[in-house]
Amino acid sequence: MNQRNLTLHSTVPKASDDSDSFIDIDRLIAILFRRAGSIALCVVAFVALAAIYLILSTPVYTSLTQILLDDSMTKYAEDEAPAASSQQVDMQIASAVEILKSNELALAVVDAQNLSENDTILDPGQGPVELVKSGVKLIASALTPGGPPASEENARNGRRQKAAAMLQQALSVERVSRSSVIAVAFRSTDQMLAARVTKAYADAYLNDQLNANFDATERASVWLQERLADLRDRSQQAALEVAKFKTENGLTSANGELMSEQQLADLNKQLIVAQADAASASARYNQFKSIVDQGPEGAVNNAAISSGQTDNSVIQDLRTRYIGVTRREQEITTNFGADHPQAVQLRTEKEDLTRQIFQELQQLTSSYRNEFEVAKSRQESLQENIRHLTGKNSESDKSIVKLNDLEQRATALKTLYEAYLGRYEEAAQQQSFPIAKARVISEAGIPTSPSSPKKTMTLGLAIVLGLMAGGALTAFQEFRERFFRVEGDVRSILGLKFLGYLPLVGKLPKERKVFQPRKTPLPQPAEVPEDGASFERIMRIVLEAPRSVFAETLRNAKLASDVMFQGKSDRVIGVVSALPGEGKSTTAANFAALLASSGKRTLLIDADLRNPGLTRMLKTPPQHGLVEAVLGDVPWASAVRVDSRTKLAILPVVSNDNLMHTSELLASQGMFNLMENARKMFDYIVVDLAPLGPVIDAKAFAPQVDGFLFVTEWGQTPTNMVRDIVNAEPQIKQKILGVILNKTDMTELAKFSNFGGTERYHHKYVSYYTEELPPKRQSAEA
């Protein structure tokens, strides 16, 4: 059996296990349909509150102006600044927003418009919340001791500060999207005042920008002027110190450089040239000397000197003649032999040329040696002069270091002075350009309609809040839903057969006019009718409307007993419930009347000895009943009453306050004998027993019962209680034929079923159940 501790939607059968959907849409729709009244009530309540709010609220008007922060406004007055990053732009706009919200700007607007004497600003119309706050403040001020009266100046300043605070409260400043535009809006109950204050805020902001720029530039100019005077004096003092130091240390200079340094530089240049000349002369001398040292023959063979190395053309001519003579000698020697006279003559001429070339080479070598010695002597002289001058300069190195330090300081002060002088000139020029970096792009206009309260938005919000509250209330009601509503609850919670619904008599749906024999409805089934109606009227509901849902449910109970006890001639059926007042006595009476009207010999026993509801519904109180018959005081047959119309036999109970052990009486041998005798005379014995739970009468009588009809009240009896009571009595549970839901509101039943439940389609069977009472019976009942 399916056990549940909490049935969130016990009235709606669970979805099949093979469903893949996370949310059961059918169940949600069923819940909304069922709780539509609660949701509608919440919506109506919130809409009513919204309407009251709209009626009591004072209309507020909003005027709007837009200010563009534009740096290009000063492009002709200032040097073009580098492009700002997006973060810098955001910071600039955020700063402008905070300036507009500041108390300083609010005070400027108050002073400009003389708002410290404006009653609309100082004492605006108060709503309910403000009235409560002002009342609390008034009480608190009355309870606290007062101070000395404020002076006129303090009072004026207090009104001024209060007006500024009220402006800040009613002011709204925000950036328009991602642009450089700032929207300034002011709310007031006075349309003209809202426009006037908004325009004053724009003017005050522009004036504040101009004044701020002017003041900053003026302060910078004054500070720069002071710094310039100081830097000028310090720069002049540093230059004088440099000149004085040069004079004291003999550090003369020309063209910005010391004389000694210039001389040393010149000598170094001359030394470099002398060294180069000496090296060149040495190279030529060594070359010619090596040639001469080889002798005449070697000198002639190695005398191949280019004209670029010497300007002596004699050697070149002699060399040319020598080569020509050598070539002719070789030709004649080859052709005529070495002893040929011409060959001998040519050799003699060759030797003479060799001697002449050697002499010329010796003269050139001597000349180059002299040049080398002169260049070397000049180089040595320059080196000596450089050493002498360097030694002299080393003595003034410390003075030069000190001089360099003084010159650097003087140069730095001069550069700093020139930079500050340029900045001072720029600041002085900017003072003459009164241009703000902002402009108004949307003038503040006079509002034509109130901005608050917004009727459409307020009502829409009220509807939304009402729906949310209705949803919360619906969820709370569904969480509290722990009662039997539909057939599926009985099967899933109790694991028992469901026999049907007994409608709530006295509140009948339109399709069941059978329960409305006249304009005043029949009394609602209960253990004791409030109007003292007779037993005949209560038990004949099933007879007055044999084609009603009421009768059909009891027929289903009879069919269940016939199926269960097929082949058995006598049947004892007990009618029980979990709580008193669930209508088990009415159910037992009508069930017995149904059996009797079908021709079955039926006995109805009122075995609820402590609260005999059936007996109290009789027209005349009985003199003898079940207790006297069990005890043997009277024959049981003499205590039975018979209904003349249905032939239903009724065994009532006479109230006896001295009867304490009712359970023992029902389990006694006398009761057993009474039931055995009754089984022989009747086909059906319907026993109205006490409710289960702490009362044990039904448990004591259970062995003599063939089957039980369990009656529970629709939407009232907790499911956990019924389940626990039934599970606690297995000897009763195994005999239960089925469960009947009594006092069912058939108009609400369909709301507790899903779209596949039979309860939702109950209206389809109206033609099968609708039946009017006979006119004669109506008049007789009336």
UniProtKB/TrEMBL annotation:
It comes from Rhizobium mongolense USDA 1844. GO terms for cellular component: plasma membrane. Residues 571-698 form the AAA domain. The chain crosses the membrane at residues 36-56. Keywords: ATP-binding, Cell inner membrane, Cell membrane, Coiled coil, Kinase, Membrane, Nucleotide-binding, Transferase, Transmembrane, Transmembrane helix, Tyrosine-protein kinase. Its main location: membrane. This is non-specific protein-tyrosine kinase. It is a multi-pass membrane protein.
